[in-house]
Design goal:
Blueprint lengths: L28 E6 L5 E5 L12 E5 L1 E3 L3 E6 L5 E9 L4 E7 L9 E4 L4 E8 L5 E7 L3 H8 E2 L23 E4 L11 H9 L3 E7 L22 E5 L1 H12 L4 E4 H14 L6 E5 L14 E5 L6 H10 L1 H13 L10 E5 L13
Parallel strand pairs: 1-18, 3-13, 3-15, 4-12, 15-17
Antiparallel strand pairs: 1-2, 5-6, 5-8, 5-11, 6-7, 7-10, 8-9, 9-10, 13-14, 14-16, 17-18
Helix pairs in contact: 5-6
């Protein structure tokens, strides 16, 4: 029986799409969803520790968003151009989206920040993306910081006052074109509280590409081709996760990106030894999770690969029902919106029984 993209549609009023982050990261709302029964508990993100217990492992994505949107001009005509950096190929070459792109053929040149940075289109890829090489003098990260802006998702129309609000407090490895947004709710104080409970925190890296926001354009879910993203699974993360699995302790993934790392590694190597590389894993209902027990995530776009991943863990009916509840309760949606903790409430101790 085929699975239709339209099976993952829900109706979302535009007013519920969060346009800016809250002043206090951890004050966002938290919907706790029992993945087995569909039971829902309403809390705030600062209440997360009451649903955790000693021995749990939180897996976070430590990627850092780069100012990947470059606004410049064609060198020959002066007409405006926008380049969105997706994936670094080497010191000077990137895979990128160029807009307007139809006339951008190999050899076309662009200039940014008054000629301090120049770019050349080297190749047009089958999906329409370009390979672009840059010419500059100095340190790339410093030049990019001056030339680029944060590539906020297209559904966010307000300007971001503070760049750091589109970074997690634990971001450290530059390379993403979008934030791993489930992690935006954590503060350093909240993480300290969680560690003090005896919860371990393992760091992985997955550089998020803008393919995250691309719509699924096929009717049959199984025909969708997933974008590829680079990940790293360190020895430290491997040791923590392997020990937890061997001892039957919960592995709780913070975000769909951390989930994709863990499930990629577990699918390729049941021993989950350290590794890195590219992944285009596509998780949708029917997938059997090999590592992740619970998931902290935001509310995702209708018909997106992200809501499909969430539905694989908790069941499509439970997820869509929870989303209907979130709309009715006026939760805030998408990148700067509220959070969801998908778990087995029986594993959460007494907090799960205090449904106030």
């Amino acid at each position: 029986m085929s699975m239709k993209t339209s099976d993952f549609y829900y109706d979302l009023p535009e007013r519920l799409i969060a346009q800016h982050p809250l002043d206090d990261r951890s004050s966002s709302r938290l919907m706790v969803l029992d993945k087995n029964t569909g039971e829902i508990i309403h809390r705030h993100f600062s209440d997360l520790p009451s649903f955790l217990r000693k021995g749990d492992v939180l897996v976070i994505n430590n990627t850092r968003v780069i100012p990947a949107r470059l606004i410049g001009a064609r060198k020959d005509t002066g007409s405006p151009v926008e380049i969105l950096l997706l994936k670094r190929l080497d010191d000077r070459r990137w895979e990128a989206i160029v807009r307007p792109g139809k006339k951008v053929k190999p050899g076309r040149k662009f200039v940014f920040i008054e000629g301090e940075l120049e770019a050349t289109c080297d190749e047009v890829l089958p999906d329409g993306n370009r390979i672009v090489s840059f010419e500059f003098e100095g340190i790339w990260e410093e030049i990019l910081d001056r030339a680029g802006t944060m590539p906020l998702p297209p559904y966010i129309h307000e300007k971001l006052a503070d760049r750091e609000r589109y970074q997690t407090v634990y971001s450290k490895t530059p390379g993403s074109a979008a934030a791993p947004t489930a992690g935006l709710h954590f503060t350093k104080a909240l993480l300290d509280d969680i560690r003090s409970m005896g919860v371990q925190i393992a760091e992985v890296t997955l550089h998020v590409g803008l393919g995250t926001f691309r719509p699924v354009k096929v009717d049959d879910v199984t025909e969708h081709k997933m974008h590829s993203e680079w990940f790293s699974f360190s020895k430290e993360a491997s040791d923590i996760v392997r020990a937890a699995r061997a001892e039957g302790r919960r592995v709780i993934s913070v975000g769909t990106t951390s989930t994709r790392v863990l499930e990629t590694v577990a699918s390729r190597d049941p021993e989950m030894m350290p590794c890195s590389g590219d992944t285009d894993i596509f998780i949708y209902p029917g997938y059997e999770f090999k590592c992740v027990d619970s998931l902290i995530t935001n509310f995702h776009l209708p018909e997106s690969t992200l809501i499909m991943l969430v539905s694989a863990l908790a069941g499509k009916e439970h997820v869509l029902s929870a989303y209907e509840t979130a709309v009715a309760e006026e939760y805030r949606f998408f990148s700067f919106g509220d959070a969801m903790f998908i778990t087995d409430l029986k594993d959460c101790g007494t907090a799960a029984n205090d449904n106030q």
